[in-house]
Amino acid sequence: MTSFRTAFALLLPLLLLYLLVPPTASAQQEAGDTELQFSGSAQTTTESSTTTVITNAKVGQYFTRSLQIGVTTSLTATFPENEEAEYGGRGGVFFNYSFLSGDATTVPYLGGQYSRSLESDADQGNAGINGGFKFYLNRRTALDVGGNYLFPLEETGSGVVLFQFGISFIL
Question: Computed from CA positions of residues 105, 170, 42, 72, in that sequence, does the dihedral angle turn out positive or negative?
Answer without folding.
Answer: positive
